[in-house]
Structure formats: C-alpha cells, structure tokens
User: What shape does this take?
Amino acid sequence: MATMKNESLKPMETMTNMPNKGAWTAEEDRKLAEVIAIHGARRWKTVAAKAALNRCGKSCRLRWLNYLRPNIKRGNISDQEEDLILRLHKLLGNRWSLIAGRLPGRTDNEIKNYWNSHLSKKIKQKGKQTGVSAKEDHRVEK
DNA sequence: AACAGTCTCAACCGCATGGAG
DNA sequence: ACTCCATGCGGTTGAGACTGT
Assistant: This one.
C-alpha cells in the first residue's frame, strides 16, 4: 500500500526542511535498510540521521518493525493464527506487542489492525448473541 | 459510469517507561 | 532523588481501495 501512494508525495513537503510525513518511498526504504544493515536496528535517532531521510527516529523504527524487518509475514492471517489471537486477546487484553510476540512474523500493528477491522466485529456479534460486550470481554488492568 | 458509503492498513501522535548522567 | 532523552506501546487518523446502488 505504501508504495502505491509514493508518487503522490506533496511538493510542499519536499521543498521545505519539514520532516517528511506520509507514505515511505522505495528509495527511503532502501536507504533505511542500508543504514540499519550497517548500524543495527537501535539508536533510532542516529539511524534517522545517518539515513538523511528527514524522518524522525520514531518513524524509522516503525517502518522497520512493521514493513522492512526480515521474516515478516504479510497478508492472510490463517485460521490458527486468528484463533491464537482471540485466545491471547482474551488472556492479555489489548497488549498487541505481547500478542505479536507469540505470532512469528506478525507485527503488533498488523494484529491491532486485524483486530479492529475483523475480530472486534466478530466479538460484538457474538456478544449480542450472548449478552457480553466486546469491551467488557477484554478489559485488563495495566 | 458515477457517486456514496465502507473497509483496510500504513503511518502518526501522545503518553509511559527505563536507563544514563 | 531527579532530570533528560530515547524508545516502545496503544489509540487514532486519513488516504486509497473496494463494494453497493
């Protein structure tokens, strides 16, 4: 998805020294991966500076973790994975990073998105049938 | 074909936490 | 003990894709 919006980088943003916002370009991805290969995936402020992307360390980290990292599974979440997510969510609540840790190749962002767009609806429907709301179901104290 | 409504997902934001000094 | 800074996390947003009318 990110790549298909790449061409639409607003001219204003490229002209100013404002930090880049919006979708990453293939070129940015390449630079980021290159810097991480040399310096490692830590000290994100340094990585951002070395890559000279006009992106903050936070953005670089997120991009790496959710998209560029090796061994990332993309697309279809299997029935087993879905079942695991449901069970872990019941156990842990909205602790997406913990849940993601149990699903090799999946990112917390992906699981969070999947939950919000698919599973929360399923739960709601179930809740309507059983009288238990999705919210009540996964509340957890920090 | 055109439009409106809905869905999906990458990316951003703000806050919390932890470590260094 | 305190402050500052970097990092991590979860919630939210928004643009494009998709679907229905």
